[in-house]
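Archive transcription. Copying these from loose printouts into the bound notebook so they stop getting lost. Printout 1 of 2:
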Amino acid sequence: MRTLWKDDLSRRSVLQLGITGAALLAVPWPLQRKAQAQTVAPHFSVLFQADGGWDPTQVFDAHDPNDSTDGIDVDVPGQPASTIATIGGLTYLSNPVTRPTVDLFFSNWASRSAIVNGVGTGSTSHSQSTQLVLTGYLDPTKADFAVMAAHHNGGELPLPHLQLNGDSFGGAYGGLSGRLGGQMSDAIAYNRLENGQLAVSGLGEAYIQQALEFERLRSAEAPPEAIAAKLSEFTDGNARGDMLAQLASSININGNNGTQLATTLGSAFRGGLTSSVTARRFGGFDTHNDNTAQAPSFENVFMFMNDFLTQLQAEPGVVASSLLDETTVILCSEFGRTPRLNGDGGKDHHPWNSYLFVGKNVRGGVTVGRTDDDQEGMKTNLSTGLPDNNGQQLHVSNMVAGILTLMGANPSSYLPTVAPFTAMVGV
């Protein structure tokens, strides 16, 4: 028999324990942790955000650079010419001189990737478009698709949605989402002394005192069943808190290395710590004054993504041999850029966007959705992704509902009135 005090006690454990459970720490008691056996393959997700509003015509939205009859400037004068390239059924813009890693990426991953073009954001404001792309609405009560995916695929995990950095909207599921670092890391930090007791940080001690006083006032006359409930809460909180402490110490929050991030997220996923991750890893796309700056920004994106997917494929999954078979990776920016260059050789904000999907449940080797000669979304069949006069222009809400479908959720449970765009979902 072991005492609870001598078990691995984490910061979250102490915060959840309260005064009634604290009285039980000196009592011998078997600590039974929850077994979280996986019987089916889980579904993880990683959302990468590219900040500033990328130019889809540089990679995703393939328009002929030599076509002078449309209203789209693909290349900046004096820049090496781009060409349309196709690998399998996936079509993209290639420029081996200015964006060589894009070709490397699709050579390696086209069969696992889908591009979606012609998605309307309805806004050219950075903040509004970010919210629209992630949630489908300008409504603070709406959660983003990464958080909803966490609710569906990992609601019982210690931290269902991990926000490394970037933007996130919790909506009704805000309690599922959190960051690591700063006060959270300080609060859950502790050292074990030789006598088996714990030494906590000053911040952690302050949190403990606050929690204990609150519980004293609330539970001064607690019935026996309340004490039993507290013990159960402590046992659960102990396991969850230990895993959070492990996660906080294992992830390099500020790193920008794709291989390293895939390794640490692999440990977090296999350890049952989180199921959905959001990260803003890329910038430099707000190119009002010089659109040639898009090329090095896309190089950074695809170099990172290639390294990340290579390592993710090498990481063992929970059930599958590769973690990539259990993970959907989503890459997006808040909006696109105008079809024509401005007087400074740059491009301004444009409310038509593109997305990249790789991994689990993705219909690989396809480019779906299309923009016309003015780089505006064409009417599209929501199931096939092909132009259809009887279809509709894609809106971000259709995309959010489609991503929920991609993640194995029923979109009507979250967005009951929205028709999902599902052309990038594998069968």
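Printout 2 of 2:
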Amino acid sequence: MSLIKRIKHRFNSFQISTKITLGYAACFAMLLLIINAVAWVGVMNALFDPAENALNRSMIRVAQVLENLNANHDSLHADLLENELSLGVVLRVVTDDGVVVVDTDKDYPSNEDFNSGILAEQPSFAEDYLEVSQFKNALIYRGTMYFKPDDDDGATLYFFKTITSELKTFNELENILIGLDVFGMIFALFVGYFLSRKTLTPIKEMNEVAREIVFENMDGRIPISDAKDELTKLGTTLNEMLDRLQKPIKSQQKFVSYASHELRTPATVFLGYVELLENGGADDPEFLKEAMEALRSEANNLQKLLETISFLSRYDQSRLKLDKETLDLDEIVGDVMRKMKISVKTHTIELLNNTPAKIFGDATAVQQMIRVFLENAVKYTPAGGNVKVNSVRDGDKVLLSIADSGIGIAPENQQKIFERYFRVSNQNYKAQGSGLGLAMAKAIADLHDVEILVDSELGKGTTFTLVIPVATGD
């Protein structure tokens, strides 16, 4: 494995907080390096450029003077050259035989002292034609120019300019910058660690809550702070997702508990009658008839339960397919009522009014919805009671009401009756059925934009009113 791959693998194994800290420190270090580099360049320019410019101007002016006096060099004197020098520039003229004929500053370091301090490596900002020497705590520039009259000995002109008179201060500045870099790196690591821990704390809390949440218990929720940042939005989204997941999971748990209870009854009946029939009950014609009727009834109930569960399952998964078309509502109501009158002998079933109207929907589903309300009315009405159905037109709606004289529904339960597995009961009446019928009817109503109104009073009965939209053009 290459070095880069090993480093990358090692970095990927770090915690997110460590990655953020290192990344923050790296960015801060890069910023410090750029700032220091810019400061260094600025200082170097401030030190070297003025000295170079001063030397260049002085050398050019002196060269012009010497050129003008080339024919009459006997008139050359020190004051004439010194007047052409820029401020701070020192001129020393040495003949070929080593005699110093001009020296504008006798206290300035000698050529020998300058030569002994020449830097081995020329500073990057220094021009190539200039020499740089360190003398004690100072850096000095030296430019050289040779002058030789036509009929006389030549001389070398040395131009000196101090770059910085206090090299110690320059070195101290360098040490200060390095110290600031080290302090900046430590500070960046500390701040990066603090910020990463503070930023990632909500994520750790989310992880802890997620570990506590299991399929059997999804009541835990991620704590939401008052901040309006991305993590708060993420926590809110996760809580909303948990709310959406918890509802079907609770429904599934309730269904498993309910199904195990409801299926136990027909299974017990089936096994009981089978054992009795095997033990000689089949020889008794009356018992055989009773057994067949009981088994048929339980089978019908079981089939109806499975159909309801299948319907609601497909509805939950948005796999329910309806074959909608224009229907005659009065024909559907009449057909359902005729079948109810034939099958129900313990109650009075009346159709008061059946207004002709066309609706748009699935015929089987609409029949099933109306049948559920009728069966529910019979179920919660004692024997001898009555169920009345009435259908009237109200503008672009049809109001189909199913009224019974049953036990009624308490106000606090009137919205719960459409919840799955909820069954109305009181001290005089034990709940029957699966608790899924009205849930299925509500699902069908929603698929057909039908509004359900409930009007009920305990001990006086219940009236369900289906507000059904008529078909366009009717």
